[in-house]
Amino acid sequence: MAATESTVQTVKDIERYKYGFETDIESDRAPKGLSEDTIRFISAKKNEPEWMLEWRLKAYRLWLTMEEPTWAAVDYPKIDYQESYYYSAPKKSTLKSLDEVDPELLRTYEKLGIPLKEQEVLAGVAVDAVFDSVSVATTYKKRLNEMGVIFCPISEAIHTHPELVQKYLASVVPVSDNYFATLNCAVFTDGSFVYIPKGLRCPMELSTYFRINEKNTGQFERTLIIADEGAYVSYLEGCTAPQRDENQLHAAVVELVALDDAEIKYSTVQNWYPGDENGQGGIYNFVTKRAACRGKRSKVSWTQVETGSAITWKYPSCILQGDNSVGEFYSVAITNNRQQADTGTKMIHIGKNTTSKIISKGIAAGRSDQTYRGLVRILPGAEGARNYTQCDSLLIGDACGAHTVPYIESRNPSAKTEHEATASRISEDQLFYCLQRGIGAEEAVGLIVNGFCKEVLQTLPMEFAVEAQKLVGISLEGSVG
Amino acid sequence: MAEAVTELPIVANARGLPAPGGAPWLADLRGRGLDAFELPGRKTEAWKYTRIDALMKKTAFVPPPLIDEPASSDIPCHLALGAEGHRLVLVNGRFSPELSDLDALPRSVTVQSLASALESDPQAIAPHLGNLQPLEGYPFAALNTGLMGDGLIIRIKDGALVETPLHVISVAHAPGEAPVAFHPRLLVMVGKGAVATLLESHVGVDGGETLSNGVTEISIGADAVFHHYKVQNESLKATHLAAAQVVVGAKAVYEAFALSFGARLSRHDIRVCLDGEGAEARVNGAYAADTGQHMDTSSYIDHALPHGTSAQTYKGVVDGSGRGVFQGRINVARAAQGTSGNQLHKALLLSNKAEVDAKPELTIFADDVQCSHGATCGQLDDDHMFFLRARGLTEDEARGLLIEGFLDDVIDLVSAPAVQASMKDMVHAWLIDRSGRKEAA
């Protein structure tokens, strides 16, 4: 009897979100609700120039006229935008070194297993930590600065490099792009800005750590990365969030610009609170990510591991404008319990000899639902364009759903597009093989799924690959047996 | 919106005409059809790639005049399937006993025109008519339901083995100036364990603009085998819309092939529901579109019950400024464990102005499944061309041979040899026409 009880307890512990805890930091936030005043408040808090406020207000007025999209295969109660806070910042925000960072915050990172200090020293990664909305610690800035790399919070870049921000902000994702992107334009609080100068290969992986902390605070990050001619940068973005009961809205916008011969590698591990077993709580993740391969021979590679969030609505895309430019999209999406994910990519081939590759692996377990939704569009001028798409879905349990909705539009005869998709469950033979060798069912599933996703996971930078492999296992716990 | 739709000429011009059959259920069904009809526009996902609203708004379609029936010699039989069959001719959707040949029909098959059935014994078809075709999401099937007047009811008795195919020849004919629209309805009931073949040829007599808006409902009993081959070879002034609803019983087999060459705009909507354990569907097709043509194939395979199998292969060749559209969805319901569903679409683009849009789709709610889809698009392989050119074939001959091989490959899936041969002849004829057009240009 006692043994059974302890098993039940263990299972419960496993199912509970591992990173579910909150940090008590006094925060400074805007009044609840969304209005022009909220936007003025945010803009004033950020000490923004007049043009930025005008830009935000224009976006807000446009947003009021737009309708929330309903085409994605996700189901959630109507969001009351007046019930959220749109700005919250940890109080102490002008820190010169890590020592000045609130110790409470540092401990939070420690609990997550990624202490800033350790990262700084061991991994050689410069971390621009976004804790709620304000960047509280920017490390390695000096070294990067010397090389000409600009890596700072976007709110700072608005002051220090207004010409770059004005030139590139909303040049990839226009203000009017979609409901959530427009909302982001109006109320975004912070995010990262990266500029890699001509010909420089950024010597370290740049990384931001996003967390959502303050209760009821929508997070609206804005990231802008520009790789000038011949530059290279690898950017990491990872997330975990404390446990909470109310749904939180997250509507980020990420814009990448790659000029001639430039390359940007953007990796994400997303592990926000997915809600409990009954679908209570969890983050709404409505993100717009898009890259413009403007230059000739430019390349953008998106890699994402999506294990968290109650609802994911995310389509990192590439606009392949420059001749011979390359777009890649590698994705692993894992949904368990009541999670819903509608994710995929768009590859728009405009330039000659542009190539794109899409590898998407979806794993659905529990009562979750997930959809791959993608678009490959070959325009008439995209002579010799090439696309290869592979979408595989794995279903674990008879109550989940996996869907594939690709759109393929080809308007150039010399272009070649290939798309394949499969859906099946874990092969009995593979499972039997593992079990027979004494590997437990849960571990075996983790092993098989990791093998299934290998093609994607191996494109991640090393630091992330380890974390991601662990995440794959954790996300599926409780889904078999 | 609804108001705008009723004002469309195709609806307005049909109003006030006597409709056959006066049963209240029929009036109710027609009413529901018209109510459900909503002209698909820019925001209608299912019609995203096929825009028909402008055509429907500007063309003043009228119901076909009652008198003009073309002489049998005017019917372009060479455009229809060449295989032997019991001939059932519809002219502008109306059954023509004179042009049809039912003498040799076996006793296990009964054929009746819809109009006469509605007049004589409407109650007998009340449970079947409109039983399979949903009105929501199928705007033109809804329009057909609202305006249908004639068509065919084919019943195949349990256990019947019908050796000679039934061949429905649908002739579109607009003798006057006015563009003609008609809404034929086919109702096919295949009994348990029966084996039968239905051929459909859609052809046009030279003349004005036509719109054929057909609905076919097929129910296949348990253990039956039903073959269904269709050729659409209408004139370039024609618009061809067809919706087929097929329900396949336990362990029954439905085999279909749709081949399209004709019409300015065509849409072939096929939905097959595997509604019995171990049901099987093989749904294939091919199309060849040239300048001024738009061809849409939209298929939906619904695995409702366990152990169903579906296989689909579609191939398309698009030349000139033609446009090909393929939308294919495989749905696996929660209950449909042990499902196997596969689909493939391959398109060949032959010109700089041609366009192909594909949207294969999987929606899966069961876990014990093996499902896949694939879609490719490209041009003729340079190596293949080189191989043939090196052996002395002209560019045109080499291309022709490769295109023919590309399409014949999928036609090989047709299990009736005579139909297969006839379809290959049609591909050959299309290619000869094509090189004629190229030379003329």
Cα end-to-end separation of chain B: 44 Å
Shape of chain B: globular
Helix proportion range of chain B: 10-25%
Q: What's the tally of helices of chain A?
A: 13
The separation of the N and C termini of chain A measures: 19 Å
Q: Note poorly predicted spans of chain B.
A: none
What's the total number of strands of chain A? 24
The overall pLDDT of chain B, averaged over residues, is 92
Unreliable segments of 5+ consecutive residues of chain A: 91-96, 117-126, 132-137, 210-217
Mean pLDDT of chain A: 81
Basic shape of chain A: globular
> What percent of residues of chain A adopt helix (DSSP H or I)?
25-40%
Work out the number of β strands of chain B. Answer: 20
Outline the biggest β-sheet of chain B.
10 strands, mixed
Strand content of chain B: 35-45%
Order the strands across the largest sheet of chain B as they lie in space: 2-1-5-8-10-12-14-16-18-20
Number of domains of chain B: 2
Question: How big is the Rg of chain B?
Answer: 21 Å
Given helix and strand content, the structural type of chain A is: alpha/beta
Q: What topology, given as strand order, has the largest sheet of chain A? A: 4-3-7-9-12-14-17-20-22-24
